[in-house]
Amino acid sequence: MSVEELYRKYNPPTRTEICRLDGAPLGPGVPSHSVVPVWLGSFCEEVSDPRITISDFGEAWLNTDPSPREELHTPPIYLPPGTTFVKDSISFPADIWTLACTIHEIMGERPLFECFLGDRNDVISEMISTLGLLPEDWWKMWEARGEYFLEDGTWRTDMKRRRAPRSMPLSERIQRMGRQDEPEFSADEAESYERMLRAMFQYYPNKRATAKEVAKSDWMMRWGIPALRAYDIQTPCDLS
Fold first, then answer.
1. Mean pLDDT, to the nearest integer, of 177-204?
2. Does pLDDT of 229 surpass 90?
3. How far, rounded to the nearest angstrom, does the alpha carbon of residue 229 sit from its chain's CA centroid?
4. Distance (Å, rounded) from C-alpha 221 to C-alpha 116?
5. Are 111 and 75 in contact, with CB atoms under 8 Å apart?
6. Whose CA is closest to 236, among 219, 217, 211?
7. What is the pLDDT of residues 129-176, one digit of tens each?
8. Which of 33, 134, 144, 169 could cross-link 121 (Cys pair, CB 3.0–4.6 Å)?
9. What is the distance of C-alpha 117 from the center of its chain?
């Protein structure tokens, strides 16, 4: 469908001007207008056999864009930890981390690094609970670590944050993914799924799996892609 056909069917976008209550000019990071979400004529519960595409994780730009990016506007619970400690860590590996968060939320029906109000330090503590301690250089840079941990990396028992002073490793979280009383995966699939996520959740960006490696991972080849093909969903490239 062309843009013109889309507009004829659903009308052009409705733009709303953004202005400050005090009448002052907008800041450099504020858009001049917002766009009202389109109404496609059906509630999500009424849509059958949907084909959903993830376009971005909060913002997108061309990889040829020469402008340096110092921060991402991805929601905190999906941001990789490197964006907190290393300003030049925004590249394709950041999308791999966020994709892993998205995959697990779809499969498990809740965020992996869920915490109250998305506090960044709470999110980092959840990452450590799930994946293990941060690399030593990042650990020393994390100013809030003393609110959660002793210097040897053990949890504080007198923590004032609202969380239990214990870890819940990724394997345990996968075991708890089951809907009702049934496990989500067989033991074989759970092990394969965990290996894929761990490759995507490597702390250092240069050690993280690439998109091609994820697409050709054991879990994708044995479970993910066959499930797509069972619903006649075409994969973007030949992965056989």
1. 86
2. no
3. 25
4. 36
5. no
6. 211
7. 999 999 999 999 999 999 999 988 999 988 887 777 789 999 999 988
8. 144
9. 16
- CB distance 50 to 57 below 8 Å: no
Which two tokens mark 30?
A: 């504020």
DSSP 34-66: EEPPPP-SS-GGG--S-------SS----TT--
Among residues of the chain, what percentage have pLDDT more than 90? Answer: 43
φ and ψ of 17, to 5 deg? -65, 140
Angle of CA points 91, 114, 112, to nearest 5°:
65
**Of 127, 130, 142, residue with least CA distance to 86:** 142
Cβ atoms of 125 and 161 within 8 Å: the answer is yes
* Structure tokens, 81: 């930890």
SS3 4: helix
pTM for the predicted model, two decimal places: 0.76
Confidence of residue 198 (pLDDT cuts 50, 70, 90): very high
Q: Give the chain's radius of gyration (CA, Å).
A: 21
